[in-house]
């Protein structure tokens, strides 16, 4: 495949302290949006073993970062959405959490490729960056929670659908 590269621009909010207490909506995509984690059949998400591994890896993030609380999340065939909360007792940065998640899940995926015949990936499992949105109020939180819950229902209209 021939992919065109574009200059990277910073997508983080300038002057925002990502160690501050707050809630974040994140989206992480697989490299080239390849569907490694399952399928959507009859508008229902069916995770494969790799998808179950990603789910388990996400669920263990609070073990590594005790000041992080997980809210709604979903593993889609080629991307992942989640809402997480960082409490005020930490200096943990959002990027550290996402970096650890991507690293751990990539290493586990490589193990699955070697030992369980999972589909191999080229160079990286995940895209280099991730999308984040600072949740500032309850209305935004509820809207994003509903979006996550309904994501499989609108898969064919999803911007990440391939």
Structural overview:
- With 162 residues, the protein is of the alpha+beta class.
- The chain is 31% helix and 23% strand.
- The chain has a four-stranded antiparallel beta sheet with strand order 4-5-1-6, with helices on both faces.
The CATH superfamily is identified as: Transposase IS200-like
User: What is the CATH class?
Assistant: Alpha Beta
Oligomer: single chain
Helix content: 25-40%
**Overall tally of domains:** 1
Largest sheet: 4 strands, antiparallel
Radius of gyration, CA atoms, in whole angstroms = 16 Å
Class derived from helix and strand content: alpha+beta
Please identify, by name, the CATH architecture.
2-Layer Sandwich
Low-confidence stretches: 5-13
Q: Bin the strand percentage.
A: 15-25%
Q: Say what the CATH topology is.
A: Alpha-Beta Plaits
By DSSP, the count of extended strands is 6
Mean pLDDT over all positions = 87
Task: Please provide the ordered H/E string of secondary-structure elements.
Answer: EEEHHEEHEH
Query: Strands of the largest sheet, in order across it?
Result: 4-5-1-6
Termini separation (Å)?
A: 15 Å
Count of helical segments? Answer: 4
Based on CA inertia axes, which overall geometry fits?
Answer: globular
């Amino acid at each position: 495949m021939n992919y065109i590269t574009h200059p990277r621009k910073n997508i983080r909010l300038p002057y925002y302290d990502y160690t501050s207490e707050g809630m974040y909506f994140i989206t992480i995509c697989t490299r080239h949006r390849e569907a490694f984690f399952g399928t959507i059949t009859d508008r229902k998400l069916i995770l494969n073993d790799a998808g179950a591994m990603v789910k388990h890896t996400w669920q263990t993030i609070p073990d590594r970062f005790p000041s992080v609380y997980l809210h709604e999340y979903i593993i889609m065939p080629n991307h992942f959405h989640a809402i997480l909360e960082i409490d005020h007792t930490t200096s943990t940065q959002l990027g550290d959490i996402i970096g650890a998640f991507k690293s751990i899940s990539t290493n586990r995926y490589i193990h699955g490729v070697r030992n369980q015949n999972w589909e191999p990936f080229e160079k990286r499992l995940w895209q280099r960056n991730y999308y984040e949105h600072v949740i500032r109020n309850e209305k935004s939180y509820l809207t994003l929670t509903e979006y996550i819950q309904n994501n499989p229902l609108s898969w064919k209209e999803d911007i990440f659908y391939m």
